[in-house]
Amino acid sequence: MPFVSAIVRTDDGTWVRSNVVNCDATPEAVKLGMRVRLAIYPIGTDDDGTEAVAFGYEPA
Amino acid sequence: MTAKISPDSVWVLGAHMTRFARYPDLDLIDLASESAMGALADGEVTVADVDVLACGSLFQASGGIGQRIQKQIGQTGVPVYNVANACATGATAIRAVMMAIRSGEAEIGLAVGAEKMGKMGLLGGGAAKKEKKVFEPSGRYGAVTGVDGYLGTETMPGVFAQAGMAYAHDHDEVGFEQFARVAYKNHLHSTLNPLAQYQKEFSMGEIMESPMMSYPNTLLMCCPTGDGAAAVVLVSGERLASMPSHVQKRAVKVSASVLTSDPFTEDCQVQPDVNTLTRNAAAQAYETAGVGAEDLDLVELHDCFATAELIHYDNLGLCEPGGAGEFIDSGGPFRDGATPVNVSGGLISKGHPIGATGVANVFEITTHLRGEAGDRQVEGATVGLAHVIGLGSACGVHILEKAAA
User: Fold this and answer.
1) What is the CATH number for B284?
2) Pick from A32, A44, A56: CB nearest B169
3) A42 is in which domain, residue-wise?
4) ipTM, 2 decimals?
């Protein structure tokens, strides 16, 4: 399953490693320098039904 | 540009590498011992002459590989260093021997690098871990599951893809095609190297259309895993001066041996910086050797991925600043170009048994400076540079010079 790994620089200068989500995982859809915003997304459910979430970034 | 034998200099006396391949019938000690004995014979010395042994193996250093090799080649009681330093493991083993000789503790030392990886798959990012079935926070960050692939990636293909894309973002003339051309070159070069794991030419189309691993690196732009060993015997100039002239003529001077780690950068907590420590190592090496990038007749650099090689053209000063795209497009790093790079086939096609790589690069340069590289010989080579980088990070650079006639 393709995913988009990115290094995000926030407006206050903090650097974050995360995924870019809610967009196609293609070089055409993802451009270096594009603006993104925080997006929480589910990454799986365990055998007890507990859902795990991760933070990602989506195109702004 | 050739070097004279001064007493405080250090020289490569003997060198050997096994073919890089997958060896189901040989173990790590077999491969390492073969190279150790090969390098000693090449230098016309025996294990009884060796004052220090350093053995690099990323995955076996903690298992005392150096002492296990001694049980095959001779237990003489000399100091042994077992070395692990990411993909710079082999270069670090050489440097350990260098320092022993420079300190005056040793006159002759043996550095061996070896790795047996088989079909290990991709490295980094905890790629092989399985998810828990019950989510419970654990570890420093209270993560309930492995996060690679969810919070970006630390896998090697991913990390080096990002480093290449950052360079492409800053330089308009660099894109997918330039990265692919690096792999085209190295596969082509490997067809002349009988020691390479793969010796097959691929077209640009085949490279660009092979399965995408991590954009822009396709499968044929990534190095393989594999098995292999390499070894070098180093000697002090003082001792070399007492050796027969035919031995002196084949000796190759180690004009610079540099090891660096990461200085702080503002994004260093979230992504490895493969550039700064390479630039720092190159600058130190050029200054120490009194050699400039323009003097180099050949370079073996750490092309774990095609993206890595391209950015290292710039990091090592082989091209104009920012000019890596133009350098590959103009043929500069091809074997008939301005500065041939990875005429061995590089990690991409020669292979990358991790602990052996940094020693094998020095073997390759040594072999060309001696004029003994056969079909792949860079004619008239007198100065060469060997570069490796391992993430974490560690960067090793050695500059070698041919002996004066």
Assistant:
1) 3.40.47.10
2) A32
3) 4-59
4) 0.90
